[in-house]
Amino acid sequence: MNPEESKPTSQEPEVQQPVQEPEQKRAKKQPPKRLSKSRPVTVYLAVLFVVALLLLLLSFFMQQRNQQALEDLHASVSAGQDITELQLANQQLEFQLEQAKKEQQDLEESKQALEGQVEDLEKQNQALEWLRQIEAATRTSYSKARSLVKAFDEAGLEQYLPVESVVEGETSPADTYRNIYAMLY
């Protein structure tokens, strides 16, 4: 055999083999390349989807927190308004209490003044009754009249005799008692 013939023959199989091997390798490698090209895109899309879900969850929780903060703020404002209304009502009640205390004090003063007047009128009534009895005794017995005048002086009721007469032109009870006293002593 000719070396040239043998060379081409040997070259042919050699040439064919390497040509076939890269083609086979290419054929075998091409489908994985397609998978590998679509795989990063799929992973990228999955990551983006997961990130989007996480962002949605984060925004949801932030919205819930903001909503709770707004509700707390609203409750605080409402409580503040209630406190203000209660303070105003408290001030009104304190003012009414002060007014009632002033009225009570005025009524107590009026009551004491009226009680003093009632006491004075009772003593005046007693003094007039004594004077009536003394006048009646002077008509019957001077000794009885003197004992009544002495008891009247001891009771200290002379100051309660009216100094003015109820009937115009008549002497007052105080003047009548002084006349009787002068007549008996």
Could you please describe the fold and organization of this structure?
By secondary structure, this protein is an all-alpha fold. It is built from 3 helices and no strands.
Keywords:
mainly alpha, 0% strand, 185 residues, disordered N terminus, 3 helices, rod-shaped
Task: Give a brief rundown of this model.
The protein has helices at 3-140, 142-155, 173-184.
The dominant shape is: rod-shaped
Strand fraction: under 5%
- Total DSSP E strands: 0
**Number of DSSP helical runs:** 3
Low-confidence stretches: 1-19, 30-35
Main sheet attributes: strand count, strand direction, barrel closure: none
Question: Would you tell me the structural class of the helices and strands?
Answer: mainly alpha
Rg from alpha-carbon coordinates: 64 Å
**What is the share of helical residues?**
over 70%
On the 0 to 100 scale, the average pLDDT is 84
Instruction: Give the H and E element order.
Output: HHH
Distance between the termini: 199 Å
